[in-house]
Write a structure and sequence with these properties.
about 20% strand; single chain; about 40% helix
């Protein structure tokens, strides 16, 4: 491929970015990953990818990282330790917006979320609304991939399900199914979209093969562990204490709580109108089996 056929991938050390880079490489595309620490790029260099070391808020470094590339996969790396993660998201979006325009990229795929069309009442998801508003100002072919609730969110309770036979759930009611999707499907769809040619703005709303309830997730844990697992609702009064244990700042805890409340009330849903609906391949059973503890 020529230099202009290189695709830049942010977040390659994370779940979705890593899946994007892997899918592009599997399709024979040339990849340039952007990392903050050169050592994190070594595994990608071994696979033949170029490695650019840059901070996403450094316009000059990001312009250089984007230069000569045909397109890029962008995401907002959420900062759950920040006092104001929304201000951080806007700063990242502003820097990337300027760098994209400086470098003359010809197309973008931007990771977004279910509910990103809603300006309020979505908690942490509002960071993706901020990102979308930023990039909608750019006159480029852009695909926003709005993802359902991540199946990987359940990994945090895998050890409890394995040791105690219960699966704590922030989502309720326990029998209500909502769209969920696996990171592998997100990465694959984003990479395949990046390889396509289109004009204007596309909004792709992505979920798994079907919707799942917390009870369905518990059944998937039971299947993977070979023992009964029961879903148990976490009272909202306990949310803040539990979320703090994951290292979230007070502001992020408020954001997480508002987001979970938005899912539970049915406020956070896909936009539906004017969007393209896609379904992934990974089932909740496959996802849970991939991260349950193995003896």
């Amino acid at each position: 491929m020529s230099q202009k056929d290189i695709y830049v991938v942010l977040g390659a050390t994370g779940q979705t970015g890593g899946a994007v880079a892997n899918t592009l490489i599997e399709h024979g595309a040339s990849v340039r990953v952007v990392v903050r620490n050169a050592s994190k790029g070594e595994i990608w260099a071994q696979r033949g990818a170029e490695v650019a070391v840059a901070d996403v808020t450094d316009v000059g470094a990001m312009t250089q990282a984007f230069s000569g590339a045909k397109g890029a996969y962008l995401l907002n790396p959420p900062d759950y330790q920040a006092d104001d993660m929304f201000a951080v998201a806007d700063n990242v979006g502003a820097a990337l917006q300027e760098a994209v325009q400086n470098a003359g990229l010809s197309k973008l795929v931007v990771l977004s979320s279910v509910g990103a069309h809603l300006p309020e009442g979505t908690g942490n998801i509002r960071t993706t609304w901020i990102f979308e508003q930023r990039f909608r100002q750019i006159d480029l072919p852009i695909a926003f991939v709005r993802c359902a609730y991540f199946m990987e969110n359940w990994a945090s309770v895998a050890s409890v399900a394995a040791s105690e036979g219960v699966m704590p759930s922030f989502l309720s009611p326990l029998d209500r199914a909502i769209p969920m999707v696996a990171a592998a499907d997100i990465g694959r769809v984003c990479a395949e979209s990046l390889l396509e040619t289109w004009s204007g703005i596309r909004t792709l709303e992505l979920q798994g093969p079907q919707s799942y309830s917390p009870n369905d997730v518990a059944a998937a844990f039971a299947q993977a562990l070979g023992r009964p697992v029961q879903a148990v609702e976490v009272p909202e009064s306990d949310w803040a204490q539990l979320l703090a244990q994951f290292g979230n700042s007070p502001g992020a805890i408020v954001g997480w709580s508002e987001m979970l409340r938005g899912f539970n009330t049915g406020h956070i849903v896909f936009e539906d109108e004017g969007t393209t609906h896609l379904k992934g391949r990974v089932t909740i059973e496959d996802a849970i089996a991939s991260f349950v503890p193995h003896s």
